[in-house]
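Reply to dn_fold:

You asked what the input looked like. This is it:
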Amino acid sequence: MFAKNLTRLLSKPTAIRFYATASKNESVLDRYRSQLQQKAKEVGVSSIEELKESLKDEISTKKKEMNAVDPLEDLESFEKEQAEKLRQRKADQKNSKIRDAIDASIPKAPYKTLSSFVDVEKIRQLPEKELKFIWKARFDSNERAMSAALSSSQFATLFANAFKNPSFVLPLPKDESGYEMHFVQWSFVGPQTTHCMLTSLAEYKLHKEYAKPHTTLMFHQELLGDSDVVLMNGQLEQDVALSMDEASLLVLNVQRFYGLMESAGTERKLALLKAFTQGDSSFNMEKLIEETASLD
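and this is what came back:
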């Protein structure tokens, strides 16, 4: 593009001014006459004219070397090189997005409960404010971790919508490629533990139930009998081509579409969620993208 722009500029008619170059050359010669005479003595000639003659071949060679460089050709080569680097970078990013499936032969590890992260008995009787502070501090040092505390009513709304609509899709905006789709799955792994897993749709299509989630949210309900709090923690995996900001945006939209955040657009989002679950024709990707981008 730069070379094309430069060619276009060069092809434009330009007003040219002619200068009295001969008189300027003479003034330059006068200014450096003493240095030129000194140079003539060093190379063994008696005058400036003889110096010019002796250096004529060297000057001619230098001019040819300089004229051999085509700036437009160099710019075109640079553009081609940059285009190839961009193509390779895109290919590398595309390949890095698709990870291997979960090895079905490896025994599944037990799911983590609240006691995997904190001493439940010690925090059970704490005031709610202190409880939330300790929970947040537990994950502050991990830059790929998320945490939150939900009220019982908030979790009840989220749980009910997740139970009725255990899967969904969410678009993630990408600068160059438009939108990348991600698959949302809810799993009710235990009596007091609920998981929400986010996986790229490309990986889910390829590996199905053996696809690796890039982000997993865990909701712990162990404290509901003693306080009005459900604790959540999440983790963005290391081996994924996804930034923490992108993962956070997906999690935000999980909350918005599953009714956790009351707003003017809540009913529209829930309607899309239900339409997806029911396979209804009212589910529309353009509407989905519009709702994820809306501020309400």
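Strands lie at 145-151, 167-174, 178-190, 193-200, 215-220, 229-236.
Hope that clears it up.
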